[in-house]
Design brief:
Layout (H helix, E strand, L loop, with lengths): L1 H19 L1 H39 L5 E4 L6 H5 L8 H13 L4 E16 L2 E10 L1 H7 L9 E2 L9 E5 H6 L31 E7 L5 E12 L4 H4 L2 E5 H8 L6 E6 L5 H15 L4 E3 L8 H38 L2 H9 L4 H37 L2 E2 L8 E2 L6 H9 L1
Parallel strand pairs: 3-8, 5-7
Antiparallel strand pairs: 1-9, 1-10, 2-3, 2-6, 2-9, 4-7, 5-8, 6-7, 11-12
Helix pairs in contact: 1-2, 1-12, 2-10, 2-12, 2-13
Length: 417
């Protein structure tokens, strides 16, 4: 009982001291608020940047939570003999059957095939990297990016020979690059679903590539749109085409991989394991994985690691500065109150009581600072979001919308520190 009474008295003393020494309290609170806002805003910005870029990359490239391909597709031999590492008709029947059996879990199942070769428009030729995909399923796999045409319109089932080319490749083939400032909706940062004019010297081009037998095949195609892969180097060579068109060019009925988009992305690990087990029981050799674990996800993994290291460094600096400022302020407060400490000691309070009183004062200040910091951080986030600020980011062809995530966990960690 006496301990409870002592604790209650120490709490009252701590609150009274915070009010009496309001100048020191204000300095400590202001320092903690600034540190809180800086820490929460920076951490939330990086969190939103990584998650938004991942979502955008997955949508633009029709990437699913479950990727299915032949074992060995990442080996060096697959680059020399890609036809040996494609999914044949029997593999495709099994995967299609599995998707039908789990249709409540699957939003889209997009097949794709890749090819390299030369594209010719009149007297102009250029190297290309083509991706052929199922038009209808690819549209679903692009999520919010269903409209991905900068000029012209997205690929359609009614245009079996229609192709979409990268901005810089289209420019080389005689197509005018659209005004990119009018493409994106500033509120959503997505392309406006509007068919903008496409002006080319000639829309008719010819694609040449080596087929499965080794001979060079050629097919006529029509440019129906210009688009972007967001990275300039890819915009210089990218071609998107209907899957049957690219299969005809390569003389094959095979595909390179399936991208399965799930209704509940958080179940990706469970469904990957299920598909892997079902394929093993059926005697079908498949590699089932997350895109981030593939060779294509290496750039993302490295970028994430780099941002993680950068975040840790900046957070350490912010915490060191804010912590040192708070420590200095509190230490000064304690040094100026030696008479108070002496008086309380003479009344029978032990050193542990004094320590508890100062800790309680710090807790009160921290609680007030955390509440104020969270409110201010929320206001900063709202102001930045409403401003719709965009900025350039190195190799990316388009600007990135500056957004700050709402992250309660970041706020709680800031308050805990």
């Amino acid at each position: 009982m006496a301990m409870v009474q002592t604790l209650g008295l120490l709490v009252r003393l701590a609150v009274r001291n915070v009010r009496r020494g309001w100048r020191h309290s204000l300095a400590a609170v202001a320092t903690m608020v600034v540190g809180f806002v800086a820490l929460a805003t920076f951490q939330s910005y990086l969190e939103e940047l990584m998650s938004s870029q991942l979502r955008t990359s997955w949508a633009r490239n029709m990437i699913g939570e479950v990727m299915v391909r032949k074992p060995g597709s990442a080996d060096a031999d697959a680059k020399i003999h890609p036809e040996k590492y494609r999914l044949n008709a029997a593999d495709q029947r099994f995967i299609d059957g599995w998707v039908r059996d789990h249709q409540s879990d699957v939003k889209a199942s997009a097949r794709s095939l890749m090819a390299v070769g030369m594209v010719t428009a009149g007297s102009t030729s250029a190297a290309f990297l083509a991706i052929g995909h199922d038009i209808d399923q690819g549209r679903l796999a692009r999520r919010d990016w269903a409209w991905n045409a900068w000029a012209g319109h997205p690929l359609q089932e009614s245009e079996p020979n229609g192709i979409m080319v990268g901005l810089l490749l289209g420019q080389r083939l005689g197509c005018q690059m659209p005004d990119t400032t009018k493409i994106f909706d500033p509120k959503t940062a997505l392309p406006r679903p509007v068919e903008r004019p496409l002006h080319c010297k000639t829309n008719q081009v010819q694609l040449q590539a080596s087929g499965a037998t080794g001979r060079v095949n050629a097919l006529d195609a029509e440019i129906v749109a210009l688009s972007s892969e967001s990275v300039r180097e890819f915009d210089q060579q990218m071609v998107w085409a209907p899957l049957p068109f690219l299969q005809s060019l390569l003389e094959t009925d095979q595909v390179a991989l399936y991208n399965i988009v799930l209704a509940e992305p958080e179940r990706a690990g469970e469904l990957q394991a299920l598909l892997r087990a079902d394929a093993e029981r059926a005697g079908v050799k498949l590699e089932v994985l997350d895109w981030r674990d593939s060779e294509w996800g290496e750039t993302f993994r490295r970028g994430t690691e780099l941002l993680g290291t950068y975040r840790s460094l900046v957070v350490f600096v912010l915490l060191a500065i804010a912590g040192s400022a708070v420590l200095t302020t509190m230490a000064k407060t304690v040094r100026e109150r030696t008479r108070e400490v002496g008086t309380l000691r003479s009344l029978g309070y032990r050193s542990g009581h004094m320590l508890a009183m100062f800790v309680l004062e710090a807790a009160v200040l921290s609680g007030v600072a955390s509440a104020m910091g969270a409110s201010l951080a929320w206001a900063v986030r709202a102001a930045i979001s409403s401003a719709r600020i965009s900025y350039s980011a190195g190799l990316l062809a388009e600007e990135i919308l500056l957004e700050i995530a709402w992250s309660p966990s970041m706020y709680l960690r800031g308050a805990a520190f």
